[in-house]
Records
---
Amino acid sequence: MIGRGAQRIWIRQVTVELLTIVVALVLAVVPISASWIEFWYSTTVYPRIQRTLTPFSNLVPFAILDLLLLIVVPTVVFRLVAAGRESWRMTGVRPFGRTVFHLLATTAALYIAFLALWGFNYRRVGMEDRLVLDRAAPKSEQVVELGLNAVSEMNRLYSTAHEQPVVGSEWRDRVLRNAFADIQRALASGPQAEPGRLKRSILGPYFRWAGVDGMVNPFGLEVIANPDLLAFERPFVAAHEWSHLAGYADEAEANFVGWLTCVRGSPSHQYSGWFFLYWQIAGEVNAQERGRLNMALADGPRRDINAVINRLRRGQIPALQRASWQVYDKYLKANRVEAGVRSYGEVVTLVLRARFAPEWMPVRRGVE
């Protein structure tokens, strides 16, 4: 028996948890205008959140996500085990069911927080509606020509880019930050995002095994990177993750913004950007076309490609990698990225279709 006061508290708690679950479901399924998200969230509310959280997370030497995981995971396991034991002792499922319901409500609350802190950016105006696109979908020969252009730039930039690589201070690199700011101004109106430092995490081994280069923690708006990244890979990975911090949640768009940032930077930044684009194209063309690209590579870039291949082979667990990308594919589709993980490759289409002013500055609709 419980008293009336305790019963009222219990009813109030259950009501709040039910409402939380309902609100989360509504937010997950109800369509919201992309223009509304763009104006009221992505260029108004979200930048204020990002410019508060990311500078704070930059000052924290460890990944805030690690702290969250070390609190949440043991708590969930402890509560489930305790509920299971209580159900066993009482020979009934009610204690376990109550705990599952509470955890479901907590998950719903976390989903609402995810949307509020970053996730609504998945629903903003897409890059194809943002930019002036001059050309139709590219043909294979155009893709190969872009790949050959990437190879030419890699060959040209290799020596200079490898002279004095600086690792670990991308977020303080004034040239890269300025290039990122220029691209942000070209693509959208609103406050500019604060770049994030590339942090290590307890997830580092998982990144290595699954072949993940980096991620943004949506609850702390911090950047976490694969600890095995080579020096020439880091500028693009930083620019890509900064693009997520700027509200470009779609992977193709983050690749596009990251590449544009790098090609406007120093020789080492440019090399990193063109290296990424070559890698992307080489993975999409057929064997004969890939052979044309490989034949054009100079010895230096070829050594870098082999170094990345060796890095990936040394650490990856194929079964875990496949499972991880399948889960991520479902995550992207759940957040209305219809192409799922295939969206990574759509950056090539954007590069070939978009209109550019000098120095690879994209032309936005309405501001030509």
---
Amino acid sequence: MNRVDAVWAVGNVTIQPLVRLLTPLRNYGVERVPTSGGVVLAFNHFHWLDPPIFGALSPRTIYFMAKVEAHRIPGLGQLIRSFGTISVRRGESDREAVRRMREVVRNGHALGLFVEGTRQRSGKLGPVQPGAAMVALQEDVPVVPAAIYGSYTWRIGNWAPVSVAWGEPLRFEGLPKGGKGYREASAEVAGKLRHLHEWLVEMHALGRPLEATPPA
């Protein structure tokens, strides 16, 4: 167990119970997440609550990416860095962030990326950026798409239900390690996230059954 794993272990008995107390959660298909080895976890993003929800529901320690501005907030920056979060400069080339992302999966860890690049305040999915595909292709690791639904309506006091659906690991054998390959792989990730999100909409309409299998 490294330092980040130790911090997550503390979070599992402090932050995770609080998240579950404040948010009625359902977790579908989590057994699809590889239990070891490098992997990219590709998430959509609606609300600031999404990172702790994914963290609470994931079987793996997640090395998240967060905008550099979040790292500069006193208290918050120190907290998220202790959980292994990597800073990235949005809207510009950040070679150091790319190097660290690749290093995370090369060392056998789970990298968590909000693949739209920013929160989608409308409650609709946004375009998928190429970062997840780039890391997966360059380091030959799978991408596991995971969609979240319901968090964009969550507010303190309404405790809106939130659900997560995990897809099957994606491999991109045969795609080139370059722009064309990144675009094709990103399009596949986007399609899987869309199907998972649509499935979650159906599950909420059905009252969120305790057990159900998300689409592959």
---
Amino acid sequence: MPTLHKMRFGAALFILAAAISTGTSLSAAVGRAASQNQTVVTFKADETIPAEIRRAAFLFVWETIRDKYFDPTYGGKDWNEIKARYEPRVGEAETSEAFHSLLRQMVEELGRSHLAIIAPHQRPGGTAANSKVQMAPEGLSVGLVEGRVLLAAIKPDTPAWNAGLRPGYVVVSVGDAVLPTTEEIRASSLRAATAARLALAGEPSSMAVLTVLDENDREKTVSVPRTAAFQKSANLGRSKFEYRRIRPRVGYLWFDGWAFDLKPKLEAALKDLWDTDGLIIDCRQNHGGVNPGVDYLSSALCPEPGILAIETSREGDRREWRHEGSGPNAYRGRVVILVDGGSGSASEVFAAAMQETGRARIAGESSFGGVLNSTQAVLPTGGILQYPHSDMRTGKGNSIEGRGVIPDIPVSLSRGDLLQSRDTVIERAVSAILSGS
């Protein structure tokens, strides 16, 4: 997989968890200097980082954002004042966990997407000393509904199903893991959803102890073995993909991320669904990815070429992310795209472009609102700084960052829906396609 700075700008649209390339040699940075392929010392969570390395890493983060951050006004924040508050605390944050948490707090004061600190022990594909294999209960997933963490889906004939767990049950606790609060869910559903998923992960062959509220709000505790590989984020090399006909004349597409292998899967699915009157594209909880699939699907749906997004650099340089269009070979049916608070980055660019041009209607809940174009740099600690270097807006100049894509057909799942195994968002999308509304 190429590093982000070698991709054309559309391919760099990643939500944090999917943004880090694995197995790729990156430039190491010490202070403001960086030398290609230099070896970087990494630290475990509880290891002490020498003071001089902490100092160099702190300055590197602060100066990189000072010089390369997409917004030279920092959204009205005083970046010098922020430095003055955090710099004295570098001496006290001695362990890797404490130090990278401090850096994370500092950059998060800017309040933008694609701006984050990854500690060495949190890096995907890290060294054997820092990485851990994690597992999760088979066929069980959680979601955020009505401000709470609920069991969203459970595959029949799995240990979770056989233990009596069902979709719609409220998750009270998972062992000692910290679940997101209602306030945290409202503040950032994407981050809260990630935290909820992480609660299911643990050591191989360990037991996940779940306390839930059943359909009658009775509390019960069950233990479920962790036997399935846990994947923190979508695999940008290989997407999970499904398609089917919900009705004889209504097609449905779902994929977990815009991965590099998505285009041929989309081609095969569209060929099979070409005779349908309408198509539902489910981008709920799709955090983003790389651009080839976005380019292809946009072109397949649109006869005319168009602009997916406009990138504007710190210096004011403007570039267009375009799709080609398919002329008379474009899919002619109606299109409804599903989004929610977990739809981010490339999913938002795609949905916003199709909505703005009138090619598709959007159903569900407002998306995450994180589309800034970002890159990454390795810190002297072996951690990673991800920062946005360009703004990203729709073809008509409308902002998605911090706002999200607003649905034409607002509809939210309820706990009652899950308990009845209903997806009312899909139902409304089908109705819109069949009625032409």
---
Amino acid sequence: MPALELHDVRKTYTSGDDEIVALDHATLTVGDDEIVALVGPSGSGKTTLLSISGGLLTPSQGSVVVDGKDITTYTAKQLTTFRREEVGFVFQAVNLVPFLTARENLMVVNDFASSRNHKVAKQRAEKLLDELGLGGRMDNLPSQLSGGERQRVAIGRALMNEPALILIDEPTSALDTKLGEQVMELIVGEVKGRKTAAVIVTHDVRMTTYADRSVAITDGRLAA
């Protein structure tokens, strides 16, 4: 079963009398353990596609199926549950909670989802951070971590709820080339090791070598 299926998805906005097309009849299938790099210039619709795939935005038309579930039929409450329990996000700005430690930033996902008890969640958080090379940094606040370390915490947080799909927005934009490559290697290792799927938005074509497949997007239109 594919992790993600977009069928003829369109997203438009109205500005005065004008219709702005952010996504134009996008159709895309991502396999259950596939990493797809979504490449395009600024304003091409990359983040819109990612947001629709993760239930953060609703399409103007078309359907979005994640792990066999058509989320375009979901109510706002169902979408909230879906985002919390079935998809992992890694945002460009990382968005860690500044007053929580690395460990607590992962455990907060469990607190919202209430999917496992505190002890089990703590063990999972510590295991993930250890795998990500942060075993000695679990009690550090985000301000005490480097940019690369914060990015790794964000990856761990996205994996915490064992999602079928991880959506990653510009994971290397704030990192130098070497650190960017290390982060991409970590993402690939974690995603493939768990047989999870990922869509990675990037403007850096060098990072596409880490994906199974690249898809270009221009002016809201996808091209193979």
